[in-house]
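Form 7-S
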Amino acid sequence: MFNTNLVYLKKIYFMKTCKKCNIEKDLNQFAKTNQRKLGVDNICRLCRNILQIEYRRKTNNIATKKYEKTKRGFLTRLYRNMVSRISGVQKAKYHLYKGKTILDKTLFYEWALNNETFHLLFNEYEKQNYDRKLAPSVDRIDSEGGYFIGNMEFVTHSENSRRGAIKKKLIYESTKEI
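Output:
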């Protein structure tokens, strides 16, 4: 009798049917929201992601592109790219970042928004109609270290690329001599 009551309770309190795919799923498969009775969305995360992908494709991702032209949006993308290098999502350069540390997102935003160089570079980037070469970029002062305060500075994208090319050339030349 206890087991049937538990199954019944689980169905009532821990399961929900997605309005899009009509599949009954655990509540943890739904995003939290305070606008619904159970405190979760009425469409599961998987279906919501599919809807968002379709919407972005239909609108050519205009909302994201517009947001990324704000300082906060730009920093969000910048931090996400830093995380993807460290975590191996960007596989081509993972060997350069494997095992490196990264500061917390909140600390990164605080550091960046209080950084005068970031504001100067971003304002120039904005003034020059978002020329990628002028975009603010985080350079690790010591490329052997991770992303942490004291090892990061803002430079333009082109300057960061130039520095990377110089380091790559120096490494190549030092291995050539051996």
